[in-house]
């Protein structure tokens, strides 16, 4: 049976959180707001606009709409600068093994990311061609935990939600997968991702046999 396997990008395929952190930290410093790695954790899977809103809330600052737009584009410029230096060495362990296995089994493979820069990143790490469908921040109107991003991916592949499997590293992403009625697989820390149907530290823990079971399982 054909299933759809939908991958989040940041934190699942590559670790771009470190680049988001550097760029947000620079922005926060220019606003005299302190910004920690713990706070950056809370921005994972969160849209660019919402991330800046949160940083301003943490710092107790209000700014004009004009300045908000300017800061967002400055942050993105700096982030793009980091991204431009990415290469295949930044792919997280065993991601190509899992993608190639799914492709060899003729399963649907999609990307479901909040990032508006997802396509550039996939090109830089040479994984763009592995995906049958790419849904990113430019295709959605509602951010995770809303299931929109994953539902669009499922529809593009012509697979019903209960026949989809989502790999996610963020709490909001797991919640989005669950409310889409898809099998949710947390990649990362079990104490953070406890709402997921299955949790793995990273893809090195995922065996081909487990993928085979997913191919024959539906979300119940
Ligand atoms: C990613 C990151 C978030 C980032 C968001 C928007 O989502 O996890 O930290 O704020 O994309 O990114 P951009 O500024 O590039 O549009 P995901 O869903 O791939 O984890
Ligand atoms: Mg993520």
Automatic annotation (TrEMBL):
<feature type="binding site">
    <location>
        <position position="10"/>
    </location>
    <ligand>
        <name>Mg(2+)</name>
    </ligand>
</feature>
<feature type="binding site">
    <location>
        <begin position="113"/>
        <end position="117"/>
    </location>
    <ligand>
        <name>substrate</name>
    </ligand>
</feature>
<dbReference type="InterPro" id="IPR023214">
    <property type="entry name" value="HAD_sf"/>
</dbReference>
<dbReference type="InterPro" id="IPR006439">
    <property type="entry name" value="HAD-SF_hydro_IA"/>
</dbReference>
<feature type="active site" description="Nucleophile">
    <location>
        <position position="8"/>
    </location>
</feature>
<feature type="binding site">
    <location>
        <position position="169"/>
    </location>
    <ligand>
        <name>Mg(2+)</name>
    </ligand>
</feature>
<dbReference type="GO" id="GO:0005975">
    <property type="term" value="P:carbohydrate metabolic process"/>
</dbReference>
<feature type="binding site">
    <location>
        <begin position="43"/>
        <end position="48"/>
    </location>
    <ligand>
        <name>substrate</name>
    </ligand>
</feature>
<feature type="binding site">
    <location>
        <begin position="8"/>
        <end position="10"/>
    </location>
    <ligand>
        <name>substrate</name>
    </ligand>
</feature>
<feature type="site" description="Important for catalytic activity and assists the phosphoryl transfer reaction to Asp8 by balancing charge and orienting the reacting groups">
    <location>
        <position position="113"/>
    </location>
</feature>
<dbReference type="Pfam" id="PF00702">
    <property type="entry name" value="Hydrolase"/>
</dbReference>
<feature type="binding site">
    <location>
        <position position="144"/>
    </location>
    <ligand>
        <name>substrate</name>
    </ligand>
</feature>
<comment type="similarity">
    <text>Belongs to the HAD-like hydrolase superfamily. CbbY/CbbZ/Gph/YieH family.</text>
</comment>
<dbReference type="InterPro" id="IPR023198">
    <property type="entry name" value="PGP-like_dom2"/>
</dbReference>
<keyword id="KW-0597">Phosphoprotein</keyword>
<dbReference type="InterPro" id="IPR051600">
    <property type="entry name" value="Beta-PGM-like"/>
</dbReference>
<dbReference type="InterPro" id="IPR010972">
    <property type="entry name" value="Beta-PGM"/>
</dbReference>
<dbReference type="InterPro" id="IPR036412">
    <property type="entry name" value="HAD-like_sf"/>
</dbReference>
<feature type="binding site">
    <location>
        <position position="75"/>
    </location>
    <ligand>
        <name>substrate</name>
    </ligand>
</feature>
<dbReference type="InterPro" id="IPR010976">
    <property type="entry name" value="B-phosphoglucomutase_hydrolase"/>
</dbReference>
<feature type="active site" description="Proton donor/acceptor">
    <location>
        <position position="10"/>
    </location>
</feature>
<dbReference type="GO" id="GO:0008801">
    <property type="term" value="F:beta-phosphoglucomutase activity"/>
</dbReference>
<keyword id="KW-0479">Metal-binding</keyword>
<feature type="binding site">
    <location>
        <position position="24"/>
    </location>
    <ligand>
        <name>substrate</name>
    </ligand>
</feature>
<protein>
    <recommendedName>
        <fullName>Beta-phosphoglucomutase</fullName>
        <ecNumber>5.4.2.6</ecNumber>
    </recommendedName>
</protein>
<feature type="site" description="Important for catalytic activity and assists the phosphoryl transfer reaction to Asp8 by balancing charge and orienting the reacting groups">
    <location>
        <position position="144"/>
    </location>
</feature>
<keyword id="KW-0119">Carbohydrate metabolism</keyword>
<keyword id="KW-0413">Isomerase</keyword>
<feature type="binding site">
    <location>
        <position position="8"/>
    </location>
    <ligand>
        <name>Mg(2+)</name>
    </ligand>
</feature>
<feature type="binding site">
    <location>
        <position position="51"/>
    </location>
    <ligand>
        <name>substrate</name>
    </ligand>
</feature>
<keyword id="KW-0460">Magnesium</keyword>
<feature type="binding site">
    <location>
        <position position="168"/>
    </location>
    <ligand>
        <name>Mg(2+)</name>
    </ligand>
</feature>
<dbReference type="GO" id="GO:0000287">
    <property type="term" value="F:magnesium ion binding"/>
</dbReference>
């Amino acid at each position: 049976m054909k299933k759809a396997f939908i991958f989040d990008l940041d934190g699942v395929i590559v670790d771009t959180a470190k680049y988001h952190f550097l760029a947000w930290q620079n922005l926060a410093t220019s606003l005299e707001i302190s910004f920690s790695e713990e706070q950056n954790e809370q921005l994972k899977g969160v849209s660019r606009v919402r991330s800046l809103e949160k940083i301003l809330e943490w710092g107790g600052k209000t700014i004009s709409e004009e300045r908000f737009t300017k800061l967002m584009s400055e942050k993105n410029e700096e982030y793009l600068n980091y991204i431009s230096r990415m290469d295949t060495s930044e792919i997280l362990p065993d991601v190509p093994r899992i993608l190639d296995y799914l492709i060899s089994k003729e399963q649907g493979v999609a990307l479901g990311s909040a990032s508006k820069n997802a396509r550039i990143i996939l090109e830089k790490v040479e994984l763009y061609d592995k995906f049958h469908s790419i849904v990113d921040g430019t295709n959605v109107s509602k951010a995770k935990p809303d299931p929109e991003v994953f539902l669009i991916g499922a529809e593009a592949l012509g697979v019903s939600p209960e026949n989809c499997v989502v790999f996610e590293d963020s709490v909001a992403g797991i919640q989005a997968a669950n409310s889409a009625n898809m099998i949710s697989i947390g990649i990362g820390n079990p104490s953070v991702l406890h709402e997921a149907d299955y949790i793995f530290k990273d893809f090195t823990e995922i065996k081909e046999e487990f993928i085979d079971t997913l191919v024959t399982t539906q979300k119940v």
